[in-house]
């Protein structure tokens, strides 16, 4: 029941301290609020402590009564009042979020903007965010613990750690493989990592940032992914790893990549930042390689504003990853905890004096890449909606492909293809202009933007042609013909859950109209 339900709209709401009371009918009450000459509250035994569930259930059945009908007792003392005040705050936040979500403007073709990506947030996220902010635990805390555990369960991983971005996730994952704790398998400066030339910079930048050498191979035009047929021939005596991304959610051929990796003893890092929920042969992307990464930027499958995650089935890799995330320290105590190992002042590591505080002993050149608990609270609410988000993305992608073909746009556009056994959790809808197209890619995207349809290129295109790469050490192991085509002719548009059928139809019709193909209405 709304706080003001059943009361005159002329009454002015004013706060009051929650207190116990006795109703004239004999019932014991908890009074939540006073509104004019009335109070709002619910029946609850005076001898029973008020817990969180009690507060939520009480507010759900809250009723109004004349103030004269109750004899007020003592105010609820802290911390007994905490669950009630939290529940009241959450309720108002839910009401606000519900009203805000109803305010979405209707889609008007040619006037409304259709962004290529976006977030879907509402009551669950606001409620969790309020709850976390009331804790005032500003670093990683209880919500972060729950979120990391949920990610680990999702991927069947030994552990998952949250970081402050998908780019940081890639940095932590690749840096993990440089740890001396891995012995002879540790990556050393100058070692090579095979990757795709076409993609996002921060799939490749961690290779450079760790003093390693990216070895570029070409991509498959139909999927946008690294071409596995080119990987094995690119291997040299210095090659130690493969690091690549599932482009726009479309699974790479992990069967072939893992065959090559096992044959040559290579590490595999799976960048799943665009592919949360994608599967190949029923197996989640991110679980084929040694270590996987996710991004929670608002454009991605779930969001916490800024955020990412690293996960693995290998407990040693996750121990190292946590160290890199947490300043490089050797200690693994969570925030606010001390002496988890039981021998905080008993270690003898490196050339430090014996008994040096383990909290200030560092085994790696690490960073501080942790998230706040408020971020994790939003992510946890989003994670509970992941299945619905994935289904919406799949539905929208299939509907857009069908509509583009129905309108003949595939005469001039190469539409996405998937591997046998692949079930993508799509991030975006990739299109590549064919040689017979009547226009350039730039002309088409400029037109779509003018019509309110947001477009994006395939990230950095051929990375070797980016300005910053002129000074970076790297090796090109194959002709990058397809990477150049993706750079020059590819773009993508949105299929995120905030897009509806009317927008999908409009995007398909508008694209086909500019290409001059017939509409099969």
From the alpha-carbon coordinates, what is the Rg to the nearest angstrom? Answer: 28 Å
pLDDT averaged residue by residue: 93
Biggest sheet, open or closed, and with what strands and sense?
8 strands, mixed
Which percent range describes the beta-strand content? 15-25%
The quaternary state of the protein chains shown equals single chain
Distance between the termini: 49 Å
**Approximate shape:** flat
Keywords:
disordered N terminus; alpha+beta; single chain; 521 residues; 8-stranded mixed sheet; 17% strand; 6-stranded antiparallel sheet
Textual characterization of the structure:
Helices cover 32% and strands 17% of the residues. It has 14 helices and 20 strands. Helix 1 packs across helix 2, helix 3 runs antiparallel to helix 10 and helix 5 crosses helix 9. The N terminus is likely disordered.
Mind sketching the topology for me?
Layout: E1 13-14, E2 19-23, E3 28-35, E4 38-43, H1 52-60, E5 63-66, E6 70-75, H2 81-101, H3 123-135, H4 142-155, E7 159-163, H5 166-176, E8 192-196, H6 201-209, E9 213-217, H7 231-234, E10 239-245, H8 254-264, E11 267-271, E12 279-280, E13 283-284, E14 291-295, E15 308-312, H9 315-325, H10 373-383, H11 386-406, E16 413-414, E17 422-423, E18 429-433, H12 441-450, E19 475-476, H13 481-489, E20 490-493, H14 501-515
Helix pairs in contact: 1-2, 2-3, 3-10, 4-10, 5-6, 5-9, 11-14
């Amino acid at each position: 029941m709304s706080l003001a339900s059943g009361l005159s709209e002329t009454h002015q709401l004013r706060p009051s301290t929650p207190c116990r009371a006795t109703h004239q009918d004999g019932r014991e009450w908890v009074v939540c609020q006073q509104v004019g000459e009335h109070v709002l509250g619910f029946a609850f035994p005076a001898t029973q402590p008020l817990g969180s569930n009690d507060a939520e259930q009480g507010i759900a059945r809250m009723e109004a009564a004349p103030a004269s009908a109750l004899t007020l007792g003592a105010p609820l003392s802290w911390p007994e009042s905490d669950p009630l005040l939290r529940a009241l705050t959450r309720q108002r936040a839910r009401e606000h979020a519900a009203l805000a979500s109803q305010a979405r403007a209707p889609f008007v073709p040619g006037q409304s903007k259709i962004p290529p990506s976006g977030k879907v947030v509402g009551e669950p996220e606001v409620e969790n965010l309020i709850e976390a902010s009331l804790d005032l635990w500003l670093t990683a805390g209880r919500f972060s613990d729950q979120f990391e555990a949920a990610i680990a369960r999702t991927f069947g991983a030994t552990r998952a750690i949250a970081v402050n971005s998908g780019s940081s996730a890639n940095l932590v994952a690749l840096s993990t493989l440089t740890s001396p704790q891995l012995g002879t398998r540790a990556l050393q400066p100058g070692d090579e990592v095979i990757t795709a030339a076409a993609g996002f910079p921060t799939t490749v930048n961690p290779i450079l940032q760790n003093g390693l050498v990216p070895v570029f191979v070409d991509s498959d035009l139909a999927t946008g992914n690294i071409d596995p047929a080119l990987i094995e021939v690119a291997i040299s005596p210095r090659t130690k790893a493969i690091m690549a991304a599932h482009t726009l959610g479309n699974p790479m051929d992990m069967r072939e990549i893992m065959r090559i990796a096992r044959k040559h003893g290579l590490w595999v890092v799976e960048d799943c930042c665009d592919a949360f929920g994608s599967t190949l042969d029923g197996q989640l992307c991110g679980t084929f390689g040694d270590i996987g990464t996710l991004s929670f930027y608002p454009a991605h499958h779930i969001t916490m504003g800024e955020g990412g995650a690293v996960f693995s089935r290998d407990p040693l890799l996750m121990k190292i990853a946590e160290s890199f995330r947490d300043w490089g320290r050797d200690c693994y105590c969570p925030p606010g905890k001390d002496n988890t190992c039981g021998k905080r002042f008993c270690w003898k590591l490196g050339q430090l004096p014996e008994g040096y505080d383990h909290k200030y002993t560092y085994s790696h050149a690490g960073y501080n890449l942790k998230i706040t608990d408020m971020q994790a609270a939003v992510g946890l609410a989003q994670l509970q909606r992941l299945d619905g988000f994935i289904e919406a993305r799949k539905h929208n992608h299939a509907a857009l492909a069908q509509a583009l073909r129905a309108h003949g746009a595939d005469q001039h556009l190469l539409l996405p293809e998937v591997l046998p056994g692949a079930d993508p959790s799509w991030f975006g809808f990739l299109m590549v202009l064919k040689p017979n197209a009547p226009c350039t890619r730039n002309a088409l995207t400029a037109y779509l933007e003018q019509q309110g349809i947001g477009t994006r290129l395939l990230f950095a295109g051929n990375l070797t042609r980016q300005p910053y790469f002129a000074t970076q050490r790297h090796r090109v192991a194959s002709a990058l013909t397809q990477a150049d085509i993706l750079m020059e002719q590819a773009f993508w548009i949105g299929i995120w859950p905030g897009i509806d059928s009317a927008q999908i139809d409009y995007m398909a019709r508008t694209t086909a109209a500019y290409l001059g193909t017939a509409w099969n209405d």
